[in-house]
Amino acid sequence: VKLFYTPCPTACRRTAAELQRIHESFGENRLLHFVSISVDPEKDRPEVLAEYAKRYNAKPGQWDLLTGDSEFIYQLARKDLLLDAVRDTSNERTPIIHSPMVILIDPQMRIRGFYEPARKETMELLTGDIKVLITEELRSVKDR
């Protein structure tokens, strides 16, 4: 899971490119699902998100870009994802401040890790942790 907004002038584009790289490295693995949630639903309408998805080869059902009610999104970010997301009306360049972290969530909806996309070693750790989760899931299916 990753918070973002399409006109983000800072790390969002770099993070999206990194997620694209990781997403493509796993191919069409059905056990893996990427979710990016816009923290600016007023500007990130479905048609804007569709264009953004094309830019990063995000295929529905494999990598979904979501939007919705801003109050719900901000509450979800803070209470469930443990991330910050706030509007900063004093700054036109970055009107929304949000956590840059990528979160890995397992099939039981537990947070398994937070990863800083600006650091290559943490993205390598994310890739390794994804492989561990896939292995765990395959073992649990086999054991049933």
Q: Give a short account of the largest sheet.
A: 3 strands, parallel
Reading side by side through the largest sheet, how are the strands ordered?
1-2-3
Please state the structural category. Answer: alpha/beta
Give Rg in angstroms: 15 Å
Amino- and carboxy-terminal Cα gap: 28 Å
- Unreliable segments (pLDDT under 50, ≥5 consecutive)? none
Helix segment tally: 4
Approximate strand percentage? 15-25%
Task: Characterize the overall form.
Answer: globular
Share of helical residues: 40-55%
Q: Kindly state the number of beta strands.
A: 7
Secondary-structure map:
Blueprint: E1 2-4, H1 12-25, E2 34-38, H2 46-55, E3 63-66, H3 70-80, E4 85-87, E5 96-98, E6 102-105, E7 111-115, H4 120-143
Parallel strand pairs: 1-2, 2-3
Antiparallel strand pairs: 4-5, 6-7
